[in-house]
């Protein structure tokens, strides 16, 4: 099953649009894990095992592992997800983008080294920087469009041929880059009006939506503006609000409760839409 098929299966069969973000920060781990030399893996595995049935995808952020010299933990974590929770796709949040020869190596990094099902990419270097990823019809190619951070508007909202640049990005990717049907876009929950603009441009293209939880995005506005014609089409991502729902030894149970609450809130909004 390719990434898009796996994602749609999770949306339909597990009835969830929640993407669980994996951004390990040892300073926020429970004190009891302090002595564990493999704490990054142990913490993330516990979160994964507690939330897998509630997730449409997992999204490990590569910098949170690399900064800790924990790339090996990330490899083992993704292998654990595939083995223990088959069918839940893994999005490697790496935001890569470079000239073609280097892009080829990033393809190997994402899909061979880490065995991810999809990867986030920065489209700013243009089509040739993304082509090696687009050629992998089995994998998801998730491109930054309108990011969730306050400074996202600095360039993304600049006028470009009479429209904001992020709308040009959405239009070009949906129209010209998606020949294999493997593209999706990153559009932040913190700017719901722009999210709605993107949805109107791209039809049913899937959207990865960070910014719920710690960044304060509004779930109801995300569903109103971002849902596709089938009331789905979204990977609504939350990391810190799930991972650090408790700083105690009950962290995994608390993460499950937070994920379930988010899924239920989303599904309530879907039925009201
Ligand atoms: O526009 C973007 C693109 C990516 N992210 C990433 O998502 C998570 C958000 O974490 P929270 O704790 O849920 O705020 C993080 O890994 C970012 O690198 C984003 O926030 N915005």
TrEMBL record:
<dbReference type="Pfam" id="PF00215">
    <property type="entry name" value="OMPdecase"/>
</dbReference>
<dbReference type="InterPro" id="IPR011060">
    <property type="entry name" value="RibuloseP-bd_barrel"/>
</dbReference>
<dbReference type="InterPro" id="IPR013785">
    <property type="entry name" value="Aldolase_TIM"/>
</dbReference>
<keyword id="KW-0210">Decarboxylase</keyword>
<dbReference type="GO" id="GO:0044205">
    <property type="term" value="P:'de novo' UMP biosynthetic process"/>
</dbReference>
<dbReference type="InterPro" id="IPR011995">
    <property type="entry name" value="OMPdecase_type-2"/>
</dbReference>
<comment type="pathway">
    <text>Pyrimidine metabolism; UMP biosynthesis via de novo pathway; UMP from orotate: step 2/2.</text>
</comment>
<keyword id="KW-0665">Pyrimidine biosynthesis</keyword>
<feature type="active site" description="Proton donor">
    <location>
        <position position="95"/>
    </location>
</feature>
<keyword id="KW-0456">Lyase</keyword>
<protein>
    <recommendedName>
        <fullName>Orotidine 5'-phosphate decarboxylase</fullName>
        <ecNumber>4.1.1.23</ecNumber>
    </recommendedName>
</protein>
<dbReference type="GO" id="GO:0006207">
    <property type="term" value="P:'de novo' pyrimidine nucleobase biosynthetic process"/>
</dbReference>
<dbReference type="InterPro" id="IPR001754">
    <property type="entry name" value="OMPdeCOase_dom"/>
</dbReference>
<dbReference type="GO" id="GO:0004590">
    <property type="term" value="F:orotidine-5'-phosphate decarboxylase activity"/>
</dbReference>
<feature type="domain" description="Orotidine 5'-phosphate decarboxylase">
    <location>
        <begin position="17"/>
        <end position="255"/>
    </location>
</feature>
<comment type="similarity">
    <text>Belongs to the OMP decarboxylase family. Type 2 subfamily.</text>
</comment>
<dbReference type="InterPro" id="IPR018089">
    <property type="entry name" value="OMPdecase_AS"/>
</dbReference>
